[in-house]
Amino acid sequence: MTVELITIGAELLSGHTLNTNARYIGEQLALAGVALSRQISIPDDHDTIVAAIRESLGRADWVIVSGGLGPTNDDITKKAIARVFNRTLVFRDEILTLLKERYARLGREPGPYLDTQAVQPADAEFVPNELGTAVGILLNDGGKWLAAVPGVPREMRPMISTHIVPKIAAQVKTAIHSHTWSTTGWPESRLYAALELLIHDHPDISVAFLPSELGVKLRFSARGADAQVALERFAGLVRPRLEDALYAEHDTGLEEVVGQLLRDKQMTISAAESCTGGLLAKRLTDVPGASSYVVSGYVVYANRAKTELLGVDPLLIEKHGAVSEPVARAMAEGALARSHTDCSISVTGIAGPDGGTPEKPIGLVWLAIALKGAETTAREVRLMGNREMIRARAAQAGLNMLRLRLFGDQQ
Fold first, then answer.
1. Strand 144-149 with 62-66, pairing
2. Are residue 201 and residue 293 in the same domain, yes or no?
3. Which of 76, 303, 324, 399 is 20 to 30 A from 356 in CA distance terms?
């Protein structure tokens, strides 16, 4: 089974829009045991779309097209698909009825171009869109399948996961089984060095390293009837080699793991942030149900705020500087005392692009964890990247330090 993806839109090529659709569709296919064999992005041009679909149909069993199904003049995917399959475009009364019923339930008047959304290539199945008016297209011609979905991510995702991927998965004879693990704190090179011999000794297991500014995802894949057994055996060999870098044996964010730890321990938390500007608190509260453990967050960018809001001694700042171990400790202890929480986390650093010195370069960050009734711990990290990357990595390092501390590791 081969599947190719075509994403349509000039905005994807110009860099104005991040192509999150390709990532989502690839992930959903992978979860179903199907590998996306090729993905291309093309502009909103009729001849280009026609040529791309024809080329992909020449190679693949399934072609998924995302984008260009709306009512405006640059939405020309339907016409291109009709040309590829030599079909006329026909008006579908049942689609228009469904769309009008949705507007009626919402108490809204239909838009002026609603009729155009009910036009489809002849003999095509339509894929319902519960969140918008651009219904999808499903066509089969001589065993070759094409699925077209809108480019708006929130509309596309349920259509792919509910209607398209299950249909593709049902046709797969030999599925790919995969496990995705989440690591942080180790660069890709160190992870590879730890696993190199295992990878060499297990050619039946495919190992992919998926780095980002927050860490590296590890994806282990195998085919065949014994794939799951082989993956479990391989996982048992990998696990001890990753030490404290592995924070979840699935694809998830560190904030979810930390949140679950706080729930399990029935602990509350506060945050005191300087260089991250609230990013730590944002990450913590991204998790549904975070109100059960997150109490407060302090963004104390100025030294005066550190003193007035957290009680940091101004003489401490004058002597050691705002980016220092003593100030990080005082910030965490101040947040703990003033929020009456079970633990707190602080971060202070130099994110750049200005402000660095030879003694305190850009990327220097101090983190501290304060626990009620326990000793406060602090750690220095030196982070690479631009301002945005340093801030993101500082928040990640803080969450990881908290994870290790909650596990009883004093690092």
1. parallel
2. no
3. 399
The token duo for 390 is: 């340093």
Same domain? For 402 and 274 the reply is yes
H/E stretch holding 126: strand 125-127
Q: What is the domain-level CATH number for residue 207?
A: 3.30.70.2860
The pLDDT tens digits of the residues spanning 143-187 come to: 999 999 999 999 999 999 999 999 999 998 877 899 999 999 999
For the chain, what's the residue count? Answer: 411
Question: SS3 for 60?
Answer: coil
Please check whether residues 289 and 402 belong to one and the same domain.
yes
Q: Write the pLDDT tens digit of every residue in 53-93.
A: 999 999 999 999 999 998 877 679 999 999 999 999 999 99
- Residue 40 has phi, psi (to 5 degrees) of -135, 155
What tokens does 219 get? Answer: 């994806």
pTM of the model: 0.77
The torsion region of residue 117 among left (phi > 0), alpha (psi -120 to 50) and beta comes to alpha
- Cα gap 231→393, rounded to integer Å: 31
Measured CA to CA, the distance from residue 298 to residue 316 in angstroms comes to 19
Please check whether residue 245 is in contact with residue 191, taking contact to mean a CB–CB distance below 8 angstroms: yes
- The answer to whether residues 48 and 9 touch, using CB atoms and an 8 Å cutoff, is no
Instruction: Residue 332: give the domain boundaries.
Output: 254-406
Cα gap 126→146, rounded to integer Å: 12
What H or E segment, with its residue span, contains residue 361? Answer: none
Q: Which of 248, 276, 311 is the last residue of a domain?
A: 248
Listed residue (49, 75, 76, 73) closest to 63, CA to CA: 49
Strands 3-8 and 343-349: unpaired
* Residue 135 shares a structural domain with residue 41: yes
| CA pair distance 1, 223, nearest whole angstrom | 13
pLDDT (tens digit, 9 = 90+) per residue, 111-149?
777 888 889 999 999 999 988 889 999 999 999 999 999
Q: What is the structure's pLDDT at 411?
A: 43
- The one-letter code for the residue type at 204 is D
Answer yes or no: is 261 within a domain. yes
Give the count of domains, the chain. Answer: 3
70 plus 103 within the same structural domain? yes
